[in-house]
């Protein structure tokens, strides 16, 4: 355990080392909010009666970078290294979504992004217990000016730091919890200022709450079960003295030049220099006071102007030179920031959409170091979150997340072996991917997808169009959906009309076929009746013929008897054969 003297020594050494970096950070915040002119410049402008002019190039660049960062929010995806790790990876992915869907998450990340581009960003994770004794992990942004790092740390993420200091201004309720004496800041409010120090001692991260003059108020040995500190630190860049700095260091000289130049040009445009010979002026004081006015009528001696004894000198040439230099500094500031006119949205040249997109992408290449620093901080944060979950999420808990496909849903942990958190060293792979893209990037991505899908499944392109418009945040989504709904309604009505027409045609064909069948059945019945009559007549004729043939010699020669039949009987036989042939043609053969 450290003593108060050791804590004071560590804190003083770390503060003295970081003071120059903190001063630069504070100046960056002042410049960002428009407080860019020095006190001497303000006094000069006040003496002239001139309105101060500030062209805040720095804020414009910072806002463009932060806007691009907001459009390119990333998230960590967890995947398993092996097939059996997939259920655990899916569970952890849901837990991470429950963590980053907190209502304060994006606000804290945005504050971190702004601090990081100005020099250093700090986030703090904490484990809280609710009334049901369930643990929840919260995220909080720590202001850079109230945070100190070990002076011997050289890592961009302070992974080699042995101590951290955080200056706190706490209210009365928290002060009473640690028996901290209060200081009166106003008649109605009392607060206390303390220092929270995390120090690594014998391989353990211990926590101290103390004051430089009043001693140690609280000491906690290894507050977290996984023996870690709660901070995630990121630095924009480190100089040769290992001091952190941000984009402000490169832009500040140019910003100062632009401000001084603009104020000087404004003064030069409203002023002039006058040289005169004493003999040309009637009253010196009256001439000086009158010539400085906008509408002045000043009397001079005869022939003074003709002999050019008075000379008025204007500053047009100097103004043009200053304006040219100022424009050069503006262009240089954009180059140093890693942006061009297309990325800043200030381009006025006429180009195709593809050319503009290519130049914008090229202009954003300079931001990759900053984006990579943010991604690295996010990765460290999520790894620490998962580590805390493994140690604290050991009881049955229910979480709520919002899923893109199913909407709001709930899931449980520690109810069965498949949803129990047990993370091995080599179980997971952490990947960073864009959570949201810019509108142009998303539109280009959808255009390429629709080209591919239209050649394979052109029938689903119409259904995908509303999804594309929603994903690209198009303001005409509702109008397009209304047009598509109306077109679908008309298509359904047309299909119904065609179906009714086809049904009527089929009914007509069926009735025609039935009529033909009935006609064939009638003919068959008629033929059957005729065949019965012919059969009966033939039978009678055969009976009569057989009665007569018993008494004649024709019985010995049946061929002659057959050839000698009555022609009428032969006719009846031919008719019978014809009827039999017609009977073999059934109605089913006629269909």
What descriptive keywords fit this protein?
single chain; 591 residues; alpha+beta; 3-stranded antiparallel beta sheet; 18 helices; 17 strands; 52% helix; disordered C terminus
Strand content: 15-25%
Count of helical regions:
18
- Gap between N and C termini: 106 Å
Radius of gyration: 49 Å
Major sheet size, sense and barrel closure:
6 strands, antiparallel
Q: What is the strand tally?
A: 17
Gross morphology is flat
- pLDDT below 50 for ≥5 consecutive residues: which ranges? 552-565, 575-591
The class by helix and strand makeup works out as alpha+beta
- Which range best describes the helical content: under 10%, 10-25%, 25-40%, 40-55%, 55-70% or over 70%? 40-55%
Mean pLDDT over the residues: 80
What report would you give on this structure?
- This protein is α+β, with helices and mostly antiparallel strands and 591 residues long.
- The protein has 18 helices and 17 strands.
- The protein has helices at 4-32, 39-48, 57-71, 86-100, 105-118, 172-177, 248-269, 284-291, 316-337, 341-344, 353-363, 368-392, 439-456, 461-471, 477-548, 558-563, 567-584, 587-590; strands spanning 74-80, 120-129, 135-142, 147-149, 163-170, 183-186, 189-201, 204-211, 215-220, 231-235, 237-238, 244-245, 273-276, 310-313, 397-403, 407-413, 428-434.
- The strands form six sheets. Strands 4, 5, 6, 7, 8 and 9 form a six-stranded antiparallel beta sheet that branches. Strands 3-2-10 form a three-stranded antiparallel beta sheet. The protein has a two-stranded antiparallel sheet with strand order 1-17.
- A hairpin with a 2-residue loop joins strand 7 (189-201) and strand 8.
- Helix 3 (57-71) packs across helix 5.
- The chain is flat.
- It starts with a helix and ends with a helix.
- Mean pLDDT is 80; it is low at 552-565 and 575-591.
